[in-house]
Amino acid sequence: MKLSVIIPTYNEVDNIGKLVQSLNEMDDLDKEIIFSDGGSDDGTRQKIAEAAEIYGNIVLVDNPGRYVSHAFNHACKVAKGSYIALIGAHSVYPADYFRVCAEHLDAGTCDAAGGFLLHRGRGATGEAIACAMSTKFGVGDTEFRTEPEKKYVDSVAFAVYNRRVFDVAGYFDEELVRDQDDEFHYRMNSLGLRILLIPELRVTYFVRNTLRGLASQYYQYGLYKPLVFRRVISSVRPRHLVPSLFVVYLVSLPLALLNKVWLLPLVLYCLLALFFSATSSLSLSARLITPFIFPVLHISYGIGFLTGLMKFRKQAH
Length: 317
What we know:
Elements: E1 3-9, H1 13-25, E2 31-37, H2 44-54, E3 58-62, H3 68-76, E4 83-86, E5 91-92, H4 97-107, E6 112-120, H5 123-132, H6 136-139, H7 143-146, E7 151-152, E8 160-162, H8 164-169, H9 180-190, E9 195-206, H10 211-231, H11 238-251, H12 264-278, H13 284-316
Parallel strand pairs: 1-2, 1-4, 2-3, 6-9
Antiparallel strand pairs: 4-8, 5-9, 6-8, 7-9
Helix pairs in contact: 1-2, 5-13, 10-13, 11-13, 12-13
């Protein structure tokens, strides 16, 4: 079998039918679709069983660990494909996504491949969040979000892997609730395995549509990043550290009472937030919201990172 597509699920009953249909219509690759379910109780498992009666390539495995890292590892060990893909149920993939990735893997030009993310949101707030997550001011030099260029990268979303990668690098770290794919990709890089970003493969990624949802997401990203660094120290990049430094700076703002110069970084930050908002192609209402998205994103990540530093430092001792 050419390809195994692994999809972690938990209460996704509304997405299963159309997802299976779209995956089977995408290309003519010989593939299986493995749902790794974390104990859904909304009819998801029944929906998967119904899909299996229609399509002969559907597999359901249990994921008692509930999280993505457990889901992928459980499914990966029963997968039959020469290539293994991990995808999300809330994104839309181009029709040739798997085929093009497989062609690059066949040619031996990389060990894993993935596409470029197009961020989309619903309503003015969702649009503003999508915009912020697409800018370097928002997420730094995260290449698969901000740099649509064909090149080898630190990480990609929704990667397609050559199966032999797991013989060399092992599997996902099950201690990580978030950042598990980043840590795995950094581990791949440290072992000399190559990850290729294919910019013409545009994946539509649907962002959180509320500030609360965004804050929770990026707090979790920051929380587990120090543990990622403990695993692969070479993965540290400036974009990982700047938000926590920004949080420390905000805490120190009372120093501006002694010297007004201490306010300059905050003024510069506000000007950059306004610049990226004003130069976007968003609607007026979304542009007015975007300046407030950047601090939510950065402060949430920074607080998570600092909390993670203290948490995992205590665990280490």
